[in-house]
């Protein structure tokens, strides 16, 4: 056993306080140097990730407590990144499940927890935000118990330690009736309950579990040393999935230290490392001693299931505001993305200006699109398409497991909606006054579903989906009626849709210079739909309207009369709107 190390993956629903807790752990372990502003949250640093409330790529941090090193492994919060979740969990020896003492367990957390239990990781539960007036820590603890029971079935893992506290106030206790002054009890708990990593003696062996990219050093291989010791300057064998072997040299070796990486000469079995200098490698391959090229079981990277056409936005209606306006720019940017975005593929098309980009799902692709737009790429994208495959003589399409969590009153509507899209209901669980419905649905049926469901449930539904497998294709899905209202998620472009509306003489929209030009992405917007997009950074200005018997949706979808919406826009209040449902509702409905 490597008694000096604990590798713990942290699982939390967005907003339940993961960043705050990790921040407090770093503080308590005194890892902030003079130059670091206290209170600056470092774990999910990407603006887009924060705004959309997801963690895209995992980042690890490490602290030292009582001479024991705790590596904290972040897990992505969305199922489009499911493959990534499974891989990073492979580096952990236990998990920290963080749950909000008011909201309780959420469907998104469930998927990650299930994976963790499947591979036998021991959970330590943290019930956070017990400082909040309406919190219900004991009920939530009971909920977690039930969830684990449902997921696992065996009694073995049901005996899990639980800590209660407030990451915000900086304390954790193992007794719900007792407040403490710091998070020592949780740190002690991690040391006590998370098993030490196994130490395997023998020739070096490590599986490449994750990768990172830096324009200075190129690709960085990340993983846990499985057997023996790994050394800087060591010549190693990189074993491909097809068992072929390439000899390479480890130029530099790093371990995690605070939120940075520290250069080291060697790392022992059980430690998490980042390797610089390997030129040719892929996720899932094995790094081994040069004389003992023993392969570890390769791990699969998820196949893409959706595609979208990317092209330069050359709409004559809008000036070119972006920094990058040529096809070559887009091509280069996409190539760079491929270095680290594993499930992504880029295919050329007949036209030199168009690229067919394949990804894991709509969210996976939207995140890339939004990032590129923020970086200044004048990008236009087409409707998402699912990728069909011939399996034997049969045309197959991707299917997903879909979970929708809604207040009871809406469950009928939601079930009806998903059935229309060829979804089949598999399970239904009541949770207080909410219902959790599970379906299996063709990925095709998910396109535009989120907005439709949110509209129908006054923004109350929480949807989560993950790819199951390719299955023989089912018949066509009936198109929905024209003229419905659609809301786009923050950051997606609207000018195209607004322009359409203007054409119909219904609304007059004069895009001011701050209007975010581009095309509506990812949704089956049609003539007659009114789409408004509101982001923190881009303002819609000079908007005038007539024909005001229509309603307007602000993104994310909360229904308003047109007048109300315009008033918000005029008063600039929309500036605060983020896709985080709770905050949004707070700002708009309070
Ligand atoms: P993440 O999305 O899981 O990383 O969550 P954050 O750490 O960003 O926290 C989300 C929000 O919850 C922030 O506004 C935090 O200040 C707040 N928060 C985090 N922990 C606590 C807590 O223990 N009590 C209260 N009242 N708020 C908290």
From TrEMBL:
<dbReference type="InterPro" id="IPR047043">
    <property type="entry name" value="BipA_III"/>
</dbReference>
<keyword id="KW-0342">GTP-binding</keyword>
<dbReference type="Pfam" id="PF21018">
    <property type="entry name" value="BipA_C"/>
</dbReference>
<dbReference type="InterPro" id="IPR006298">
    <property type="entry name" value="BipA"/>
</dbReference>
<dbReference type="InterPro" id="IPR027417">
    <property type="entry name" value="P-loop_NTPase"/>
</dbReference>
<dbReference type="InterPro" id="IPR031157">
    <property type="entry name" value="G_TR_CS"/>
</dbReference>
<dbReference type="Pfam" id="PF00009">
    <property type="entry name" value="GTP_EFTU"/>
</dbReference>
<dbReference type="InterPro" id="IPR047041">
    <property type="entry name" value="BipA_GTP-bd_dom"/>
</dbReference>
<dbReference type="Pfam" id="PF03144">
    <property type="entry name" value="GTP_EFTU_D2"/>
</dbReference>
<feature type="domain" description="Tr-type G">
    <location>
        <begin position="3"/>
        <end position="198"/>
    </location>
</feature>
<keyword id="KW-0699">rRNA-binding</keyword>
<dbReference type="GO" id="GO:0009409">
    <property type="term" value="P:response to cold"/>
</dbReference>
<feature type="binding site">
    <location>
        <begin position="15"/>
        <end position="20"/>
    </location>
    <ligand>
        <name>GTP</name>
    </ligand>
</feature>
<comment type="function">
    <text>A 50S ribosomal subunit assembly protein with GTPase activity, required for 50S subunit assembly at low temperatures, may also play a role in translation. Binds GTP and analogs. Binds the 70S ribosome between the 30S and 50S subunits, in a similar position as ribosome-bound EF-G; it contacts a number of ribosomal proteins, both rRNAs and the A-site tRNA.</text>
</comment>
<dbReference type="GO" id="GO:0019843">
    <property type="term" value="F:rRNA binding"/>
</dbReference>
<keyword id="KW-0963">Cytoplasm</keyword>
<dbReference type="InterPro" id="IPR005225">
    <property type="entry name" value="Small_GTP-bd"/>
</dbReference>
<dbReference type="GO" id="GO:0043022">
    <property type="term" value="F:ribosome binding"/>
</dbReference>
<keyword id="KW-0547">Nucleotide-binding</keyword>
<dbReference type="InterPro" id="IPR047042">
    <property type="entry name" value="BipA_II"/>
</dbReference>
<protein>
    <recommendedName>
        <fullName>Large ribosomal subunit assembly factor BipA</fullName>
        <ecNumber>3.6.5.-</ecNumber>
    </recommendedName>
</protein>
<keyword id="KW-0694">RNA-binding</keyword>
<comment type="similarity">
    <text>Belongs to the TRAFAC class translation factor GTPase superfamily. Classic translation factor GTPase family. BipA subfamily.</text>
</comment>
<dbReference type="InterPro" id="IPR000640">
    <property type="entry name" value="EFG_V-like"/>
</dbReference>
<dbReference type="InterPro" id="IPR042116">
    <property type="entry name" value="TypA/BipA_C"/>
</dbReference>
<dbReference type="GO" id="GO:0000049">
    <property type="term" value="F:tRNA binding"/>
</dbReference>
<dbReference type="InterPro" id="IPR009000">
    <property type="entry name" value="Transl_B-barrel_sf"/>
</dbReference>
<comment type="subunit">
    <text>Monomer.</text>
</comment>
<dbReference type="InterPro" id="IPR035651">
    <property type="entry name" value="BipA_V"/>
</dbReference>
<dbReference type="Pfam" id="PF00679">
    <property type="entry name" value="EFG_C"/>
</dbReference>
<dbReference type="InterPro" id="IPR004161">
    <property type="entry name" value="EFTu-like_2"/>
</dbReference>
<dbReference type="GO" id="GO:1990904">
    <property type="term" value="C:ribonucleoprotein complex"/>
</dbReference>
<dbReference type="InterPro" id="IPR000795">
    <property type="entry name" value="T_Tr_GTP-bd_dom"/>
</dbReference>
<feature type="binding site">
    <location>
        <begin position="128"/>
        <end position="131"/>
    </location>
    <ligand>
        <name>GTP</name>
    </ligand>
</feature>
<dbReference type="InterPro" id="IPR048876">
    <property type="entry name" value="BipA_C"/>
</dbReference>
<keyword id="KW-0690">Ribosome biogenesis</keyword>
<dbReference type="GO" id="GO:0005829">
    <property type="term" value="C:cytosol"/>
</dbReference>
<keyword id="KW-0820">tRNA-binding</keyword>
<dbReference type="InterPro" id="IPR035647">
    <property type="entry name" value="EFG_III/V"/>
</dbReference>
<dbReference type="GO" id="GO:0005525">
    <property type="term" value="F:GTP binding"/>
</dbReference>
<keyword id="KW-0378">Hydrolase</keyword>
<dbReference type="GO" id="GO:0010467">
    <property type="term" value="P:gene expression"/>
</dbReference>
């Amino acid at each position: 056993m490597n008694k000096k190390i604990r590798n713990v993956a942290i699982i939390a629903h967005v907003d339940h306080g993961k960043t705050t807790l990790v921040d407090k752990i770093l503080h308590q372990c005194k890892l902030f140097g003079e130059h670091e502003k206290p209170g600056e949250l470092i774990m999910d640093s990407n603006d887009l990730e924060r705004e959309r409330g997801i963690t895209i790529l995992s980042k690890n941090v490490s602290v030292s407590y009582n001479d024991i090193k705790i590596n904290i492994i972040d897990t992505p919060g969305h199922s489009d990144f499911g493959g990534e979740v499974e891989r990073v969990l492979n580096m952990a020896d236990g998990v920290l499940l963080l749950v909000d003492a008011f909201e309780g367990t959420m469907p998104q957390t469930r998927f990650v927890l299930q994976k963790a239990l499947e591979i036998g990781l021991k959970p330590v539960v943290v019930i956070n935000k017990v400082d909040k007036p309406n919190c219900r820590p004991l009920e939530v603890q009971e909920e977690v118990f039930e969830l684990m029971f449902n997921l696992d079935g065996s009694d073995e893992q049901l005996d899990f330690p639980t800590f209660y506290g407030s990451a915000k106030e900086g304390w954790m206790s193992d007794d719900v009736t007792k407040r403490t002054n710091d998070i020592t009890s949780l740190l002690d708990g991690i040391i006590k309950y998370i098993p030490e990593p196994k130490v395997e003696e023998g020739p070096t062996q490590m599986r490449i579990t994750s990768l990172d990219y830096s324009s200075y050093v190129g690709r960085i291989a990340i993983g846990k040393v499985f057997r023996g010791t790994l050394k800087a300057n060591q010549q190693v064998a990189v074993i491909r999935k097809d068992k072929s072997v390439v000899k390479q040299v480890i130029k530099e070796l790093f371990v995690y230290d605070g939120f940075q990486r520290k250069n080291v000469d060697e790392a022992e079995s059980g430690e998490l490392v980042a390797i610089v200098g390997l030129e040719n490698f892929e996720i899932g391959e094995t790094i081994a001693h040069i004389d003992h090229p023993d392969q570890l079981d390769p791990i699969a990277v998820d196949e893409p299931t959706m595609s979208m056409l990317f092209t330069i936005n050359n709409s004559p209606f809008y000036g070119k505001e972006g920094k990058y306006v040529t096809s070559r720019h887009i091509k280069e940017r996409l190539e760079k993305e491929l270095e680290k975005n594993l499930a992504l593929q880029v295919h050329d098309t007949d036209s030199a200006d168009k690229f067919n980009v394949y990804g894991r799902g709509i969210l996976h692709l939207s995140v890339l699109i939004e990032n590129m737009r923020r970086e200044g790429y004048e990008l236009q994208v087409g409707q998402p398409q699912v990728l069909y495959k011939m399996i034997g003589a049969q045309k197959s399409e991707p299917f997903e497991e879909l979970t929708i969590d809604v207040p009871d009153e809406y469950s009928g509507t939601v079930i009806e909606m998903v059935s229309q899209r060829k979804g089949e209901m598999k399970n239904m669980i009541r949770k207080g006054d909410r219902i959790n419905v599970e379906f299996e649905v063709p990925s095709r049926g998910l396109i535009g579903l989120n907005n439709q469901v949110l509209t129908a449930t006054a923004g109350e539904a929480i949807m989560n989906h993950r790819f199951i497998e390719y299955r023989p294709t089912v018949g066509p899905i009936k198109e929905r009626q024209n003229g419905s209202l659609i809301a786009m998620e923050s950051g997606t472009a609207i000018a195209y849709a607004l322009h359409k509306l203007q054409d119909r003489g219904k609304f007059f929209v004069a895009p001011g210079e701050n209007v975010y030009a581009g095309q509506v992405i990812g949704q089956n917007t049609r003539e007659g739909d009114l789409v408004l997009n509101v982001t923190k950074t881009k303002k819609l200005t000079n908007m005038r309207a007539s024909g005001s018997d229509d309603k307007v949706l602000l993104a994310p979808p909360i229904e308003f009369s047109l007048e109300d919406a315009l008033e918000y826009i005029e008063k600039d209040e929309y500036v605060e709107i983020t896709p985080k449902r709770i905050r949004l509702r707070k700002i708009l409905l309070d």
